[in-house]
Every structure is written in structure tokens, then in C-alpha cells.
């Protein structure tokens, strides 16, 4: 038995972050709220609070030796095996245990998350067997995903399906196994490392933003408590024991009150009206109502009041109403009160005010351009580097073993235990070995097992990095670049490409459009773009590098980054060091990511010093010198950039 015991920092000892703690407690009382997403920088106590939550939850009854934590008292929360025993009248032995927190690591495979059918065992023993995954372990518990915004898209799709249905279905080789999987979904993320897909974002019931505590008194208290926790563990835990027990009892009492909480129909109409004005999803009013009822139960009341509704809206609506990528969700209570008080005003609308309800100030000297019509970008038949192209010219693929994804193309002898058994090849191998044998039954042995090699579609990440400083404003090149982005997205669905748009001007760069294949999102994000100011080229290269590294964490196999940098090569804003050295170092790191960079040189004066040559040499980039950037020219450049690295550009 392991003697190393991991002690968790008490929930009641966490300093500050009251909004985050309340959101977690509300989900503990009522898991039907749908979980919580916690956004904030590192070191703000996000993970500490999540781990501490489990210690507050009451014990649950589970069927003994059931890998799915089935509820022995509710047949609707049982797996097939437990349900069959229940219908036969068999007594289900049960035990009590604490609610689990199951961590879903970013590098978890699909089989580890969803579970996998043990095909090898089924072939040898003739039985249907499931090796449970994390979704089985998390049933009736907490599924915690740190850095959820970096989660692989395929795994995220599985989570969406299971979170919606409460059932996980594993299908392999025409064999299907299902089991219950209902959990409190808790995710934490640092917005600086990338945004969350809108579909997954809406799946979180509540969202809170946590900031670094800046109050000196609170910072001192944090230091004292952490030092005491590490130097006198037993004494520290005893110090907060009574507070922990008191909060546990309060949670249990709220859970008993919750079924009897009522919400007036008038308040339901207020919720519906506000959600309608904010144009949020249909899930929003459901979450608001459930949260308001839970707040009432937590306050030991059986009726919802207006304050409960307002607080619920603050937690459940902001992340559902963002209009721009990387826009911080914000919905002040004052604005909510105004919306509720003006429900009868038909002409009142919030849509034009934006989700931050603040008018954006535009520095002097800026110009605003609207996006041009989508540029037609013909990528059909283009061969992307390090890839395989099918007969149609569209399919760009890579071969993988053991991933369980993609089309099955052939089989190989596995190295170690096979995770993706090829049944046809396994049977052929066993039959070939059995030739001349008198036994009528075909037996499968370890040496017969074969593993599938699959071909998956790869995708390109096309990044347009555009100089929006004063030197570029005169000719409206931004308009052409935005038109090209929309044109690229017309191809994105069939080719599984993603497009991103980075503009740099003033003191820094801005990721206006994070990697997406959504044409609607691009239209909204690139509707207007201010230009003017200084030229922070180093910032743009750093933003590009960070984004590629973030996307590669999600999709290490199939991502092919391609960068189109539109610049005159000038730069007059550094990251803190010498500009030329910064540019060379960043371009070298971009080269290491495998990204193909094309520099569209729009400089007009050949005698004015710039950094074009430094970029080309450090990044091994293609160079296109062009004076008049048009839609047609940009189409040719992007098409050529998708070809083999050695293909010359001709204009």
C-alpha cells in the first residue's frame, strides 16, 4: 500500500477569488448547471481551487466493482451489466466513496479518453470486452481539464457528444458498447495561449475570470498560509477543519432544498427577454434558471429572487455573447438591471453596443477599411509539401499507427501491444499458420495479431501577417489581405484548412482572427481594421510563433503551417532588445516549427534600410517583390506558397 499521501490545500483556506469559489460550489450543489470554465493567468489559484473542491463533496453510493460508478438506487444511472442484474432481481452490493476528480491530460489519446474495445480479447475468447477510459472513471464525478483551450479537436468533439447525451458509446469493428457518463465539467485556461472553440465554450454552464491578486494585505496572507501549509501540515489542516465541515454541511443542506426551490414565471420571462436581446444560445436561459435556483438553495431559500437571477446572468451569459476573438467576456450588473427594466422598450438593443458595452476609442491618425469581397483562391491540384495528394487533388494525408482515426489502408505486425487490431489481417495470419492442422476451430495466438495503418487527412494553417502601420495605410493593402482571408475560408471546409489573421501596428500586434475555418467568424472579426502608427514587426513574429506552437500542441501529426507576411520590412518597435537580433532569432524559431514563410515585399524605396533580407535568410523564406498588391497577385502568391518548397515563384 502506498505510503505517500497527497494532501490538498483546504478550499476554505483559499484567499480571495470569491466568484470562482462560488461558481465551483454551485456546480457541486447542482451538477446539472453544466460545469464551469475558469479563465486566468498562471498562478491565480485555478487548479488549487478545483482540487480542493472534491474534499467538500459528500460521499456517493456506487455498485461494488463496477468500473462505471453506477448508482445502485437508480436504474437510469446504470451500465448494461448492472441494469441486467437489477432487472433479474439480483441484489447489487454497493460501497460508499468520495467523489473523484479525474484529470484529462492534453496528450491523452482517444482510446484513453473514451475507452476501447479489447478486440484481441474478443477474438481469442469470443467475448465482448471494454477497456474503460477516463469518461467511465469520471461518471458521477468531476472531469477536470487544465489548459482546455489546447485540447485536441477530435477529443473535444467526443467530450461535446458525451456531455450532451450523458452516454459514452465506443464502436469498433461493428461492435458497440455504451455506458453512462455524467460528470461536472471543469476547465481552466490561460487566454494568452489561445481561445476555446465556440461549441465547447457554450457547453460550459458558467464562466469566471480570475485575476492576479494585487492587494498587498491579501498577498501577505497568501504567503503566510502557504508557508504554514508546507511547514505544519497537520496543524494547518486542523485549523480549517471546522470551516471545511461547516461548508460541507451547507452544501448537503442546499442539495436537499434544491428540489423544492420555485422560480416565478415573471422571472422566467425576464430571463428569456434578456437572453433574446443578447442573442445568446437557447442553452443560456436554461443555465441561468438552474443557477438562480441553486443560488437560492445555497442561501437556504425555496424561492428565487431578482438578485439570484442577476448573479446567475453574470456567471452564465458573458462567455456566450462574445463577438470578437480574444475579447474578454464582460457583462456588468448595471447593464443587466437596465435590460430588465427596459424589457417593454421595443427599440432598445444591446447588439450595437458590443459585448463589452464600451465604445472603442480610435487613436488619431488611424484609418478604417472595410473588408473587400472574398478573393477567389484556386488551390485545387496544389501539392502541399511533405504530404500525399489523392486523385482528386484535394485529400492531403498522413499515415498513422494506433490512432484509431482515418481510413484503414493496410496492416503491420505490431511493436508491443496492438491498440488498433486489424481483424481481417489477423484472421488471415492465423489461417495461414493453421494450414495442415487437423483442428476444426481457428485459434488466434499473439503472433497472429496485426495492427492497422490508417491514413488521416491533414490540414494547413494559413497565417496572413499584415503590416497595418502608417507606412501601409495609403494603398489600402489591408483590404486586399482581408479579402484573401475570406477567399481562403471558402476552401476551408472541404480541405480542412484553418486561416488566421495577424495585424501589427502601434506598440504591438493583434491576433484579429484566431485559427478558424468559419467564414462567419472571419466576416465579423475582420469587418473593420484600424491602421496607422508605428511598426512592431518583432511583436508580429512573436505572436505568429506563439500561435503555431499552441496549434501544434493540439495537432502534432497533421498541421502544416504556412505564413504569408505582407510588409515593407521596416520596424521601429522592439520587444526590449535590439530589433535586428530579435527578428533573426524569431525567424529562426519559426523555421524550426516547420512553417513555410513567404515574404511579400511591398517596399517602395530601394535605398531605405529594412529587414527583408534578415527575414529571408533566417527563416529560409520565399521572397516576392511587388509594388502593386492586387487580389489577382495575392491569389498567385498564396497558391504558390502551398506548393513544394522548391517550386519557384513566377510573376
UniProtKB/TrEMBL annotation:
It comes from the Archaea. Keywords: ATP-binding, Nucleotide-binding. InterPro entries: AAA+_ATPase, BchD/ChlD_VWA, ChlI/MoxR_AAA_lid, Mg-chelatase_DI-like, Mg_chelatse_chII-like_cat_dom, P-loop_NTPase, VWF_A, vWFA_dom_sf. One of its GO terms (molecular function) is ATP binding. The keyword DNA damage does not apply. Residues 461-642 form the VWFA domain. The keyword Nucleotide-binding applies. Belongs to the Mg-chelatase subunits D/I family. This is VWFA domain-containing protein. It comes from Candidatus Terraquivivens tikiterensis.
Amino acid at each position: 500500500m502506498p505510503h505517500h499521501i497527497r494532501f490538498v490545500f483546504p478550499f476554505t483556506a483559499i484567499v480571495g477569488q470569491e466568484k470562482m469559489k462560488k461558481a465551483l460550489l454551485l456546480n457541486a450543489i447542482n451538477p446539472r448547471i453544466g460545469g464551469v470554465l475558469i479563465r486566468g493567468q498562471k498562478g491565480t489559484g485555478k487548479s488549487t481551487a478545483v482540487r480542493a473542491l472534491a474534499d467538500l463533496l459528500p460521499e456517493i453510493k456506487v455498485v461494488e466493482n463496477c468500473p462505471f460508478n453506477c448508482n445502485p438506487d437508480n436504474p437510469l444511472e446504470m451500465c448494461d451489466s448492472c441494469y441486467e442484474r437489477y432487472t433479474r432481481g439480483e441484489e447489487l452490493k454497493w460501497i460508499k466513496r468520495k467523489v473523484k476528480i479525474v484529470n484529462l491530460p492534453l496528450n491523452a489519446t482517444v482510446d484513453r479518453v473514451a475507452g476501447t474495445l479489447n478486440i484481441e480479447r474478443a477474438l481469442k475468447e469470443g467475448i465482448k470486452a471494454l477497456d474503460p477510459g477516463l469518461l467511465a472513471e469520471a461518471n458521477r464525478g468531476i472531469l477536470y481539464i487544465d489548459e482546455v483551450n489546447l485540447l485536441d479537436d477530435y477529443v473535444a468533439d467526443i467530450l461535446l457528444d458525451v456531455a450532451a447525451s450523458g452516454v459514452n458509446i465506443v464502436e469498433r469493428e461493428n461492435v458497440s458498447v455504451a455506458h453512462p457518463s455524467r460528470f461536472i465539467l471543469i476547465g481552466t485556461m490561460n487566454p494568452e495561449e489561445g481561445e476555446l472553440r465556440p461549441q465547447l465554450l457554450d457547453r460550459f454552464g458558467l464562466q469566471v475570470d480570475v485575476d492576479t491578486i494585487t492587494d498587498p494585505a491579501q498577498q501577505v496572507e497568501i504567503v503566510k498560509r502557504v508557508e504554514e501549509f508546507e511547514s505544519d501540515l497537520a496543524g494547518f489542516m486542523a485549523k480549517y477543519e471546522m470551516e471545511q465541515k461547516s461548508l460541507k454541511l451547507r452544501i448537503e443542506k442546499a442539495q436537499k432544498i434544491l428540489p423544492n426551490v420555485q422560480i416565478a414565471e415573471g422571472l422566467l420571462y425576464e430571463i428569456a427577454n434578456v437572453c433574446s436581446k443578447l442573442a445568446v444560445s437557447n442553452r443560456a436561459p436554461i443555465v441561468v434558471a438552474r443557477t438562480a435556483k441553486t443560488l437560492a438553495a445555497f442561501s437556504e431559500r425555496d424561492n428565487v429572487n431578482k438578485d439570484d437571477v442577476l448573479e446567475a446572468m453574470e456567471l452564465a451569459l458573458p462567455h456566450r455573447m462574445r463577438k470578437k476573438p480574444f475579447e474578454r467576456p464582460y457583462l456588468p450588473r448595471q447593464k443587466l438591471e437596465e435590460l430588465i427594466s427596459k424589457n417593454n422598450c421595443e427599440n432598445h438593443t444591446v447588439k450595437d453596443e458590443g459585448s463589452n458595452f464600451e465604445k472603442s476609442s480610435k487613436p488619431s491618425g488611424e484609418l478604417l477599411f472595410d473588408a473587400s469581397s472574398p478573393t477567389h483562391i484556386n488551390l485545387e491540384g496544389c501539392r502541399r509539401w511533405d504530404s500525399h495528394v489523392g486523385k482528386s487533388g484535394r485529400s492531403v494525408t498522413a499515415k498513422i499507427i494506433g490512432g484509431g482515426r482515418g481510413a484503414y489502408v493496410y496492416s503491420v505486425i505490431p511493436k508491443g501491444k496492438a491498440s488498433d487490431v486489424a481483424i481481417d489481417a489477423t484472421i488471415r495470419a492465423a489461417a495461414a499458420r493453421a494450414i495442415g492442422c487437423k483442428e476444426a476451430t481457428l485459434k488466434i495466438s499473439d503472433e497472429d495479431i496485426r495492427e492497422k495503418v490508417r491514413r488521416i487527412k491533414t490540414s494547413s494553417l494559413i497565417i496572413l501577417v499584415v503590416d497595418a502601420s502608417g507606412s501601409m495605410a495609403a494603398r489600402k493593402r489591408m483590404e486586399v489581405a482581408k479579402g484573401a482571408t475570406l477567399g481562403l475560408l471558402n476552401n476551408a471546409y472541404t480541405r480542412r484548412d484553418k486561416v488566421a489573421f495577424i495585424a501589427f501596428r502601434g506598440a504591438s500586434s493583434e491576433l484579429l482572427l484566431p485559427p478558424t475555418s468559419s467564414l462567419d467568424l472571419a466576416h465579423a472579426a475582420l469587418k473593420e481594421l484600424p491602421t496607422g502608427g508605428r511598426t512592431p514587426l518583432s511583436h508580429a513574429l512573436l505572436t505568429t510563433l506563439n500561435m503555431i506552437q499552441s496549434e501544434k500542441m493540439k495537432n502534432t501529426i497533421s498541421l502544416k503551417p504556412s505564413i504569408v507576411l505582407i510588409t515593407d520590412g521596416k520596424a521601429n518597435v522592439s520587444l526590449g532588445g535590439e530589433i535586428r537580433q530579435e527578428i533573426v532569432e524569431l525567424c529562426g524559431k519559426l523555421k524550426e516549427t516547420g512553417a513555410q514563410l513567404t515574404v511579400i515585399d511591398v517596399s517602395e524605396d530601394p535605398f531605405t534600410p529594412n529587414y527583408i533580407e534578415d527575414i529571408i535568410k533566417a527563416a529560409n523564406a520565399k521572397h516576392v517583390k511587388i509594388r502593386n498588391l492586387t487580389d489577382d497577385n495575392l491569389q498567385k502568391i498564396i497558391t504558390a506558397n502551398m506548393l513544394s518548397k522548391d517550386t519557384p515563384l513566377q510573376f
